[in-house]
User: Fold these one by one.
Assistant:
Number 1:
Amino acid sequence: MVFRILASLLFIESFFLFLSTIVAIIYSEPVYALIVPTLITFVIGAFGWFNTNKASKQIGKREGYLIVSLVWVVFSLFGSLPFIFDGSITSFTDAFFETMSGFTTTGASILNDIESLPKSILFWRSITQWMGGMGMIVMSLAVLPMLGIAGMELFIAEVPGPTADKLHPRVKETAKRLWGIYSLFTVIEIILLYAGGMDFFDSINHSFTTMATGGYSTKQASIAYYDSAYIQYVITIFMIIAGVNFSLSYFALKLKFEKVYKNEEFRYYIGFILIFTLILTTIIVSNKNFTGFEKSFRDALFQVVSLITTTGFVTADYLAWGSLAAIISFSIMFFGGSAGSTGGGIKIVRIVLLFKNSYQEFKRLLHPNAIIPVRLNNKAVDPKIITNVLAFIVFYILTFVAGSVVMASMGLEIDSAMGSVIASLGNIGPGIGSVGPMDNFANIPNAGKWVLSFLMMLGRLELFTVMIIFTPIFWKK
Amino acid sequence: MVFRILASLLFIESFFLFLSTIVAIIYSEPVYALIVPTLITFVIGAFGWFNTNKASKQIGKREGYLIVSLVWVVFSLFGSLPFIFDGSITSFTDAFFETMSGFTTTGASILNDIESLPKSILFWRSITQWMGGMGMIVMSLAVLPMLGIAGMELFIAEVPGPTADKLHPRVKETAKRLWGIYSLFTVIEIILLYAGGMDFFDSINHSFTTMATGGYSTKQASIAYYDSAYIQYVITIFMIIAGVNFSLSYFALKLKFEKVYKNEEFRYYIGFILIFTLILTTIIVSNKNFTGFEKSFRDALFQVVSLITTTGFVTADYLAWGSLAAIISFSIMFFGGSAGSTGGGIKIVRIVLLFKNSYQEFKRLLHPNAIIPVRLNNKAVDPKIITNVLAFIVFYILTFVAGSVVMASMGLEIDSAMGSVIASLGNIGPGIGSVGPMDNFANIPNAGKWVLSFLMMLGRLELFTVMIIFTPIFWKK
């Protein structure tokens, strides 16, 4: 049953590999590096499909968690083939890291000379992020009717945030709407970027990786390559949109703006962006290498948005702004986008619930016997959700610490160890230290790349979905 | 009312200042630096006492939090006078920092040449820690009958840990027993250290600061000064005892050993010490500068115990053991002693509850409608306590992050900023970076010393007690 679903998902991967093959044909590039993986993926998918039984029983929670976790591993295994066949990445570890970084929309790269890669390979690299952004399961729910029966379980396991919003009573309809909005915004961004003078191929790639909050660029210098305020602002705006709960975007498209601006998570999300931008702008302006107010504001805004949405695009080296800016940038990495967005990290709603609950704790100190609920959007939040959110945040931080210890044990400096871990766990991309915005992950030891790949998956699936598989209770009858 | 209690507590401080005066007389040192503060404290205490009305009404929670917070500030103000009058510390900021560091049992020092100080000043410095270890309120509860009426409120606000154990239905009796055990262990340690060849004066001082998990030493080199395995093991054992819930020590003294070894927090506390010692020993042994197995084990054990109990004594430079050892040491700083001990930090029981709850979260994922309680010592823990513990841990980490940002904004490197903050907030003493075990806090900017002093108080009173005073709900009628 689990294998059958994985097999059917491989058809989807082979479809997108086929799209990349077409790109290779268009640009007259060697085709075999893409057509061979397309066929392998298709054949193995078909083999799995015909050698498993038809779905007879309902998929349970356990199978749901297993499928969602495995699909990222399987996709990354097959998705790394083009890099290997093309020869652009010679080591399997590196290829797997690059692909997992793509599917999890992390955007951490081991490539030192991105412009030298064939366009078709770059396209595949961007499309891994676009697929991973909305999620393979959500995608398949929209496409494959057979998953409908177990849809909700898979949907909950994959969609980020403490609760999964439904735009439609039927999961399949919800998934269709989500992919519709996602595609629509991607197309609009392509048009706007192309109108601003970015070449068509780059517009497509950057739009894919913006909406996925992925951060892969077709340029080694990332968005700093484009010395255009227009392009940088367009990308900033679409990063902000990608970091908003897609349910809210859906309401906005239906012109129900009240639902959007009355949403507390949205307000805090915008508030955090404004506050951090104000702080970083002040820091840059007070620096010696001040290059004009608009540029300082734009750099600050772009970096804040890129980090809080966990996109990881770069227009400036935030580590060059001094240690205060570095610590603030580092702190922003823990925030993350909104629940139900493509952004990674802890997520704004959890941070908000944390602060609200802390304030309620003070009240509880003074009135120990009163029942004082936490309210969000004027509704009392179930105490179970509060406990879950707090447990998640602490677990997240512990995973970060444990990961940093492991990376430090491989010889990384403390700041690089912490930077590489939060950049992976938060699905951001660039971190601090030796994996800062001007560097990449090429020099991380191989074992470290596997650890970071695992952290990317943990972060993308919000810890519990993956971790539960490693607990005895999961396997208990 | 609040003033009257503070005034009465000043009598206690003046009594201990008087003890230090006697030490000055014994060692024929200038007496005025101690007798003048003794008199000032006594006179102001008396003035406050006679100009306030007798306790008429019950002390409420609000007054309790206010008193407990203010007493540390007031005590540090008066307690810094000997350093200033003696001239051993010339700046008021430094003197206040050193005294707050004493009363909160942090042990972070700005002194560069401790051996040059008069013995009476060193004695006062050690006694601030001894007073702060068990807590001024707990002390006064044992001594001052007038506080009896509000005792429990103050007791809860001051005693560390999520719940306050009562050894006796009457608060006053509980306080008496706690101080009795505390004094008894201090005396035993004095005898054992003296028997091991430490001079009598140093034995007293080190016993005071061991049992308080304070970490002030009469030697610049701290315990590394004593090249005696016996002395180092004795101090290690008493640090371990000081980090145990004093209720358990009480049971142990009554020979109810079963209550001790069946206590889950105690088991985890010992378990964490053993595991971390094993890891650090392995690291030291595999280092190039390996100097024998016993010495490596002793250094590792001493450092682990010193950090987990938040004492802060030093026998070796853990930063010289490589970046992995540094990160592990840094992580241990977040643990802290047991609830109801003199140790600071997050406390073992909170860490244990956190892990237990996280495991239950997995179960809740699979059975969302079941009520799955967290159990400690075979009893279900109230979900309110779980929420409080989780909120505390996250708040602790946030305070740590915010503090690090502030310290970095004053020009400290990232590791020094984080090191100085956790060393203060956790009431440890030495941190990492420029405030590591071989350095001190003298070079921190003045503003930074005030921030760290505040963090020490926050940490000692476990955040909420102090923070609640700064919330609007506290002042609302």
Number 2:
Amino acid sequence: MSEGPYDLAIVGAGPAGSAAGIYAGRAGLNTIILERQMAGGQVVISPSIENWPGEKEISGPDLSMKFRGHVESYVKIREFSEVELVGHDRLFTISTPEGELVAKALIIATGAEHRKLGVPGEDTLSGRGVSYCATCDGFFFKGKDVLVVGGGSTALLYAIYLHNIGCRVKLVHRRSEFRGEKALQEKVRSLNMDLIMDTLVEEFMGEEQLDGVKLRNLTTGEVLEVHADGAFVAVGEIPRNEIARSLGVKLDREGYIEVDRKMATSVPGVFAAGDVTGGLKQIVVAAGEGAIAATSAFDYLMEPYWTESG
Amino acid sequence: MSEGPYDLAIVGAGPAGSAAGIYAGRAGLNTIILERQMAGGQVVISPSIENWPGEKEISGPDLSMKFRGHVESYVKIREFSEVELVGHDRLFTISTPEGELVAKALIIATGAEHRKLGVPGEDTLSGRGVSYCATCDGFFFKGKDVLVVGGGSTALLYAIYLHNIGCRVKLVHRRSEFRGEKALQEKVRSLNMDLIMDTLVEEFMGEEQLDGVKLRNLTTGEVLEVHADGAFVAVGEIPRNEIARSLGVKLDREGYIEVDRKMATSVPGVFAAGDVTGGLKQIVVAAGEGAIAATSAFDYLMEPYWTESG
């Protein structure tokens, strides 16, 4: 016996899923939010947020709590609920740790995760010196030696940010030129930090805590060990698109879900919002998209097919 | 002598323009926000807002003040500054009450205004019983007789809302069927309010204050006068697209600015966000679009043309 049918299942309780929940609940849709970890998404792990309109500065946990309280006045969030899509005709069947549930419409708000280098020491030292978010963890490395890995705009921004808060920064990139914005490249160069080009990270070293990084120069083959208290990896993000893939939803070349301006995907009844759709990965953008997705789901559920069958 | 050149001029200080200002300021763009009235846009006139994520309930003026304080920590808002575009090559020249100013990029966040019926008494009794926003002004008509004019979802929502707060509602529509969402139609029918179909408003009547409305049935030609303390007109919105038109920016059939997912318009250097771009007219959607527009303007200004010429 399946739970439901719900009008709407929202997968993910970050800013996109939360805004979708508020709008769906207010619209009177029987809605459930399924979150594989804690509600809040990447917001929860952000120490300080300064670009959520109306809040000059707020901690990630505080903003998450505000979202959560608001959402839960309308709909339920089920945390630690890793889900899988197990079937769909007009109804979507989802397996959860508590059993199967059924919903008439779906919003995918599963976000994206940081791409890893896949080298020895990365996993064991993650959270012990190896990080994927300078604005989250940079604070702990004030006045210390840090390495930034990558050549895109995010890597350049991390380097500038870490320099500004007082780290001694080395920037390591596997190519001979950066890919990131020109202005950021110029800014990085003006700061006189070490730019270690044509170089791969081979290993993160350290026992309990990161204390060095093994590098290899791709041109000369030379292997170099540098001291580092922190290492910030910025080599891209991977959308969490498993559910989209099992539904046959159309993705772009990087694996992000393709949506139209109503946040509808290529599969009727399936909507998406937030980082999993690519674009600008910002809280307020994700929230706006969540509001649109919920409103579009409401419109979808007002089709005669649903209103006649109840 | 013109003021500037600014990196970016944002026209409109509602949620879209405010979010754009925060993001532009944080990105280091030399930015000015030009607002024809008071900062805040339609938010200022909303008594209560319940769908801005994180705030279960906040007054429009309070939310506006929060936005404003945040924006002004980064960029200047110039109020009561009705502007006009007077020229552009790569730079945009804008006339303001204080003289001309020049900017390298432009974000149009001018919003939309409520469509009027254009009948006698409408202008003179506006704000004296005639209103365009039930959630703004409904409160004043508790327990009184009100008329809602229109047949779309907004009109249906107004009728439900006003009924719920204790008004005696008559709904007047010029066609024989409503256009709005089916569920809202059913809801309206379930409330047993007067539905006056095939009927036009001919005149709003009253001296100091609305006290009646003259209606004409289009099928029978019959003219009817009904008593009304309030009348809520919900017959659509008109995008404020004057600046877009003078720039030759591509508009859709209803006059909204066409944008891509980066909020870029058809004219290089011109971006748009919020209600003037159509779509879902909600604060959080406008704010998300403003953040995207500012980020896209930043990218545009990082092109070699601008960084080389300073």
